[in-house]
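note to self: the first set is below, dont mix up w the second
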Amino acid sequence: MIPQSQAIYIQPGFVFLNNSLADANALLILRLRMLFMNERIEKLKVFLKESPNDCFLNHALALEYVKLEDDNAARELFEKNMATDAGYVATYYHLGKLLERIGAQQEAIAIYEKGMEVAKNARDMHSYNELQGAYEDLVY
C-alpha cells in the first residue's frame, strides 16, 4: 500500500507517486481525458438547449456523467428519456447497469424486465438479448 503522504494525486483507480515520469504521463493523460469529457458535456448541453427532449442527446450526456461517476445526474437523464420516449431501448440497459452499480438490484431487475418488453415489441432482438443477459447475470 502506498502511503498517502507520498502520493501527489489520487483518483478512483489511480495513484500517482512523486518523481515518476510514468506517473506524470498517466496524470497528464487523465487530465486530458477529463478535459475532453467536460468539453463533450458542454457541447451536449448546448445542443440540448435547442432540443431538450432529444433522447439521443440526453442519453449521450447521461453516459458522460456515468464516466464521471455522477450517478445522480446520469440517472435523472435516463429517467427523463424513459418519460419522454419509453421506446428508446438503449436507456433501459444503461439505467439498469447504473442501478446495479449503486446497489439498487430490485430496481435494476424491474428496468431490465421493462426494457426486454420494449425491445421485444420493437423487434430489436439485439437489445433484447443484451437486456436478457444483464437480467440473468443479476438474477441467477
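second set (the one i keep forgetting abt)
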Amino acid sequence: MPRILVVDDQKDVRTMISMVLRVNQFEVAEAGTAAAGLQLFREQAFDTVIVDINLGDSNGLDLVRDMRDLAPDLPVVAVSGMSAFDGASMSDQLTRVIYLQKPFRPAELVRAVDVARAAVQEVGEGALSACAG
C-alpha cells in the first residue's frame, strides 16, 4: 500500500486529506509543522508527500526543497489557498511538483497524487527514493 505524508498546519484540512487518501487505499502519516514533517520524512519511507505551501511555522516550498535534498525523485503535491504560485519554479528541486489550489474535491486530490507519482516515474527511476535513517 503506497505511503503518503501529509503536512498541513490546519488539522481539519489534514484530516480531510487523510480520509480521502485512506478511502483510496493509501497509508497516511500526518504532520502539523514543517519540522515535524521533516522529522517523519527522515525516520520513515514515503512514496509521496502532500505539503501546504503556507505552513504556520515556515514556507512549505522550503520543506519540499529539504525533502528533495534527501530524496530527489520524491513525488510532491503542493496545496495552497492562493490562486497563484509565484516563484514556485525557482529551483530544480521544485520541478515536477503538482500544485493543487484549495478548496479541491476528493477526486482532484487523488488525481494530483497520481499525476505527481507518474511525473517522477517518467524521469527514469521506477523505484522511488526512500529516506529512512
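remember for set 2: The two ends are 21 Å apart (CA to CA).
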